[in-house]
Amino acid sequence: MAGSGPRGISTVGVIGAGQMGNGIAHVAALSGLSVVLVDVNQAALDKARATMTKNMDRQVAKGSLKAEEKDAALARIATGTEMPMLAECDIVIEAATEREEVKLSIFRDVCKLLKKEAILASNTSSIPITRLAAATDRPDRFIGMHFMNPVPVMKLVEVIRGIATSEETFDAVASLAWKMGKITAVAQDYPAFIVNRILVPMINEAVQTLQEGVGDIRSIDAAMKLGANHPMGPLELADFIGLDTCLAIMRVLHEGMGDSKYRPSPLLVKYVEAGWLGRKSGRGFYDYSQEPPAPTR
Ligand code: NAI
């Protein structure tokens, strides 16, 4: 049975069925909420369902989930390519490609369909929440809900208040994050918020360190794993996040802060232009056609 969530939230819409969208849908469904997952691309939806099934199977194998809970959760997730499917949602979490024009066009379409009281949240890594909110009919019911990758594993949700976000919206979203088993960190709406303001310039510096030949891929990652106790090296992590997403975040920081210390590394730009986007494209700083993935230089 679909449980009723915090402050009347029982149905969650998710727009974008990529790496993040499928994780958000997975966790929302397992917490008893009904989920509507929408993407423009049917292949992305098929892949998302396969990924959610595989990840839940893994939880069942580990003993942290019962097989019947998995079946019930998967049955609570409706998928489709048509935006009107979202009309009855109490909250819609947008997790589409990190391009402002894409997100603005989604919000224009979805606002026409949603109930007046429905909340709109964006999982953007870096685009100002206040600017996105101002382009909608509901700036007081608009908020940043920034999940971490992979969503089923990572505990944190950064909740970002836009300048007009109401207390009621903030409370509803904080309770929803809690119901989804997450811990929140509250951020104000400044470029890249908290996590990426600190993390992505470090990744960019690692790419610049590679570009300057200070170290090779293996040495840079080993240095930060074994020397700074990071669970993943910065280049490995960049491949995991997606190099296009890392570049988009650096550009937002560079423009938003007006400080040359946030200049994207030219090597990062070159990799993105080559289509070497990391794990999702099969090649980034590592080559994922090999097992285990091998450094490319
Ligand atoms: P992705 O590239 O894996 O997935 C994006 C999905 O959006 C694709 O399936 C695409 O078909 C879909 N899409 C594009 N235009 C659309 C439209 N008009 N309507 C519906 N769907 C559309 O990207 P990913 O990594 O899942 O990122 C999504 C969002 O989450 C971005 O805003 C990103 O900055 C943010 N994010 C990413 C993290 C990461 O580690 N990759 C971490 C936290 C946030």
Question: Which ligands accompany this protein?
Answer: 1,4-dihydronicotinamide adenine dinucleotide
Order of helices and strands: EHEHHEEHEHEEHEHHHHHEE
Query: So, CATH architecture of the largest domain?
Result: 3-Layer(aba) Sandwich
* CA distance, first residue to last residue: 52 Å
Pfam families: 3HCDH (PF00725), 3HCDH_N (PF02737)
Domain 3-hydroxyacyl-CoA dehydrogenase NAD binding: 11-189
Domain 3-hydroxyacyl-CoA dehydrogenase C-terminal: 193-288
Keywords: NAD, Oxidoreductase
How would you describe this structure to a colleague?
It is built from eleven helices and ten strands. By secondary structure, the protein is an alpha/beta fold. It has two domains: 178 residues, NAD(P)-binding Rossmann-like Domain (Rossmann fold, 3-Layer(aba) Sandwich), CATH 3.40.50; 99 residues, Orthogonal Bundle (N-(1-d-carboxylethyl)-l-norvaline Dehydrogenase, domain 2). α1 crosses α2, α7 crosses α9 and α7 crosses α10. The radius of gyration is 19 Å and the shape is globular. The mean pLDDT is 95. Bound molecules: 1,4-dihydronicotinamide adenine dinucleotide.
Task: Record keyword descriptors for this entry.
eight-stranded mixed β-sheet; 3HC_DH_C; 6PGD_dom2; N-(1-d-carboxylethyl)-l-norvaline Dehydrogenase, domain 2; 11 helices; alpha/beta; 297 residues; Rossmann fold; NAD(P)-bd_dom_sf; binds 1,4-dihydronicotinamide adenine dinucleotide; 2 domains; two-stranded antiparallel sheet; single chain
